[in-house]
Predict the 3D structure of the following.
Amino acid sequence: MLACTAHAASFSVTSPAFEDGGTIAARYAGPGVCGGENVSLPVAWHDLPPATRSVVVTLTDPNGPKGIGVTHWIAYNLAPEASKLDAGAAISAPASVGLNMTKAAAYRGPCPPVGDTPHHYLLTVTATDLAPGVLPAGLDYAALQARLAGHTLTGSTVIGRYGR
């Protein structure tokens, strides 16, 4: 048990697009008035627990709208061996894509309201004991969380900020 705990403690998530707590480049923001190109954020995970069978990636904004929070991206059923998703791989990755805040199975880049303080975007990777393909396509954030209950091994988050 101690070895598993030590290993889980070393699990980490990084994004070459921003430092933890740093600013997300406009390229990854939503298109049009949001100021970006809607390119999905790159993300990498390191030192997964040995029992990991699949990985979940989410991008959420707990600040919007007005503190209720929204989901920008959900990718799941990822094989742990992948160890990363490159920039722009949101849809082409060998994964299931969940429903974002607009009920679309797609990446939706950051887009806080004009004049708001920069929002915090949580890029989270969760290790699960579920085999890839077990979770059905098209889950929204609440349905995904319900299906993951009792199946998560560990998770790690990096936080980026974006404002306009």
